[in-house]
Design goal:
By secondary structure, the protein is mainly α. It has a two-stranded antiparallel ribbon with strand order 1-2. Strand 1 and strand 2 form a beta hairpin. Helix 1 crosses helix 13, helix 4 packs antiparallel against helix 10 and helix 5 packs across helix 7. The radius of gyration is 25 Å and the shape is globular.
Length: 292
C-alpha cells in the first residue's frame, strides 16, 4: 500500500481514494441502517440533554442499535409491495425484449445498408437525446392515453419505455456493428446465407457484449423510471415499485423504515442482472472472429 515508484509515495493517492469511497458508501450505509433498525424514524439514537462527543458520533454513525428484519417482513406482507414488484418486473422484461429487438435491427440497418434518410434518421436519434425526458410527458400522455387508450396499462408503459430508450441503444449498437468485419458477412453470402441468417447467426453472437449493455440499459430504464409510471398508472394495483415507494413517505405518513427496506429490495434485481451480464460487459469485441 505504501510502496514507492520512482521515489513517489503511493499513500496520498490511496488516502484520497479511500476517502471518496467512504463518502460514496455513507448514504448507502444509512439506507441499510434505517431498513434494519425496525423503526420508521430517520434517527437511530436519541441525543441526551447534554450530549458528549461520543453521543454525537454515535448519532451520525450508520449502525442500528438493534438489528431487525421487521421492516422487510412488513413491506412484503402488510403492503402491496409484492404486486408492485411484479408489475415492475413484467414491464421491465417486456421493455427489454421489445427495446433490444428494435434497437438491434435498426442499428444493423443503419450500420450496413445505405438508404434515403439514413443520416437524417441518425441525427434525429442524436438530437432527441439532447432534451429532458419530461419534455415528452405531455405528447406521450396524449398519444398513449387519449388516442390509443393505453392508460393504466402495462403494455402502454412498455411501449413508452421502449420508445424512449431506442435512440441511445441504436447509437450504441451501431458503433459496435461498425467494428465487426464485413468480410464475415461477405463469406457467408458466398455460402448462400440470407441477410436474416447472417444477422441472427453471425452478427448477434459477435455482438453479445453490446447487446448485454443495451439489455441492461433498457431494463434499468424501465425498472427505475418514476415520472411516466406515476402519470400513466392511476390504480394502486398497477403501480410499479418506484411509484409505490413514494407512498411510504407521502404528506400524511413518514414510514422511512418501509421506504429504506423497499429501496433495498428494488435494487437487488438490478445488482443480480449486472452480475449475470458482467462477463459480457468486460469481454472483447470481436477478438478471434477473423483469422489471418
Amino acid at each position: 500500500m505504501f510502496a514507492r515508484r520512482d521515489g513517489v509515495p503511493h499513500w496520498p493517492l490511496h488516502l484520497v481514494l479511500t476517502t471518496f469511497t467512504l463518502f460514496t458508501l455513507y448514504p448507502i450505509l444509512w439506507v441499510v441502517t434505517i431498513a434494519l433498525s425496525g423503526k420508521q424514524s430517520l434517527a437511530i439514537s436519541m441525543l441526551p440533554e447534554a450530549p458528549t462527543v461520543m453521543d454525537r458520533v454515535r448519532a451520525i454513525t450508520p449502525w442500528p442499535e438493534t438489528v431487525s428484519l421487521s421492516n422487510f417482513v412488513s413491506v412484503m406482507r402488510d403492503q402491496p409491495f409484492g404486486q408492485w414488484m411484479l408489475n415492475s418486473a413484467l414491464i421491465a422484461a417486456g421493455t427489454t425484449v421489445v427495446g433490444v429487438f428494435l434497437a438491434c435491427t435498426a442499428a444493423y440497418a443503419f450500420s450496413r445498408f445505405k438508404f434515403p434518410g439514413q443520416r437524417a434518421g441518425l441525427m434525429a436519434f442524436l438530437v432527441s437525446q439532447m432534451f429532458p425526458g419530461t419534455l415528452m410527458l405531455i405528447p406521450l400522455y396524449i398519444i398513449m392515453v387519449q388516442w390509443l387508450g393505453l392508460g393504466n396499462s402495462r403494455f402502454g408503459l412498455m411501449i413508452a419505455y421502449a420508445t424512449t430508450s431506442i435512440p441511445f441503444s441504436v447509437w450504441m449498437l451501431k458503433g459496435y456493428f461498425d467494428t465487426i468485419p464485413k468480410e464475415l458477412e461477405e463469406a457467408a453470402v458466398m455460402e448462400g446465407a440470407s441477410v436474416g441468417k447472417i444477422f441472427w447467426t453471425i452478427i448477434l453472437p459477435l455482438a453479445k457484449p453490446a447487446v448485454a449493455v443495451t439489455a441492461l440499459f433498457s431494463f434499468m430504464t424501465a425498472w427505475n423510471e418514476f415520472v411516466l409510471a406515476a402519470t400513466f398508472m392511476d390504480q394502486e394495483s398497477m403501480y410499479t415499485a418506484p411509484v409505490g415507494l413514494k407512498f411510504f413517505v407521502g404528506g400524511f405518513s413518514q414510514q422511512w423504515g418501509y421506504f429504506a427496506a423497499g429501496s433495498i429490495i428494488v435494487s437487488v434485481p438490478v445488482v443480480i442482472l449486472f452480475l449475470f451480464l458482467q462477463k459480457y460487459l468486460v469481454s472483447g469485441l470481436t477478438a478471434g472472429s477473423v483469422k489471418g
